[in-house]
Amino acid sequence: MLPLIDLKKQYQRIESRIKEEVIRVLDSGQYVMGPKVQALEERLAQYVGAKHCISCASGTDALFMSLIAKGVGKGDLIITTPFTFFATAEVIALTGAVPVFVDVEKDTFNISIESLKLAIRAIKENDSSIYPLPDKALRENAKLKGIIAVDLFGLPAEYDAINEIAELEGLFVIEDAAQSFGASYRDKKAGSLAEIACTSFFPAKPLGAYGDGGAIFCDDDELAETLRSVRVHGQGSNKYENVRLGVTGRLDAIQAAVLAVKLDIFDDEFENRQRVANYYSNGLKESGFIVPVIPGGCKSAWAQYTIIASNNDVRKQSVDRLNKAKIGNSVYYPIALHDQKAFSYLGYKSLDFPVSIFLSERVFSVPMHPYLEVAEMEQVIEVLQEGN
Ligand SMILES: Cc1ncc(COP(=O)(O)O)c(C=O)c1O
Known about the structure:
Elements: H1 7-28, H2 35-48, E1 52-56, H3 59-69, E2 76-80, H4 86-94, E3 98-101, H5 113-124, H6 136-139, E4 143-150, H7 159-169, E5 172-176, E6 184-185, E7 188-189, E8 196-200, E9 214-218, H8 221-231, H9 253-264, H10 266-283, E10 298-299, E11 305-308, H11 312-324, H12 354-362, E12 363-366, H13 374-385
Parallel strand pairs: 2-3, 2-4, 4-5, 5-8
Antiparallel strand pairs: 1-9, 6-7, 6-10, 8-9, 11-12
Bound molecules: pyridoxal-5'-phosphate.
Pyridoxal-5'-phosphate is lined by residues 58-60, 84-85, 87-88, 150, 176, 178-179, 200, 202, 212, 214.
């Protein structure tokens, strides 16, 4: 079996260091937050080039805490894309705000700047004939507050344009960098591309813990203080003073120890992900599949290597062949968010976002991790080319 993501190979490389560091935490008696977590936050902030890092319990918490810190709630509209992991839009709805979907680009899977402009105009003019909007009753007296842009599959979105539009319109931008830790955009690292950036340390992510974890990055001192308060039930100057509502969003010291060991080898792993992606893209050039497009000035973290089949039948046949050859694969994401039952109350129609629908019917991902060998990549390419 060739797994989609092989965490065991990585573990074999770092096993002794991990055991040493985890035992150190066990011996220390400090299990939640503490010096290990603080030291990791400092390293992570430096790595991405942000002033502050606020570690937390998951990528979902990172996004949710960021919205809470920005005061998002009922009566607010927040723009995001429908072709992403559920959590990106879920957190918007959990605050009481309304998600407003904007379609993605077919070649990058990231937010379409033209659609973003249209959606903002449609909201301002309260006219869904300009761009599809959520149900009219949900928009009544609601105010557009911000944008969550997603760096899908590890590729940063177009932040120059997004930040410029946001500034013009008085909106905040959150970078959902859950999949893009390590990626870069015009010499800046993912995690530093918007006012707030959120990442995930779920084990399968480019930088993954051995449990759940996440982090928020920002430059603003006051925002960082608010986020630190939100992380612990809206704590004030001491433990039993609560100045706002918050969550239990802390990172534990064992995950921090694991992440510190993995950060030591991260740059080497990052380069190996580029190696794997380049090998696949060369090998699949003539295959009839559309391979990922990386715009100039960007580097993807290659959380996934995702290709586009010419239609849904071809995807089905390809997935069957991969399964038969015992090659790990997955479809991210088979149901666009506006088509999910949980978001049916928004009142969108399936074809409101044609590119997201197009992609949800055709994409699939093949094994991607830094330890893939040439023979393994050759096997993937061969199986994909059979019968295509
Ligand atoms: C784009 C995106 N946003 C948010 C999340 C949520 O992260 P977590 O699973 O750590 O809560 C994920 C994780 O899969 C993700 O891929």
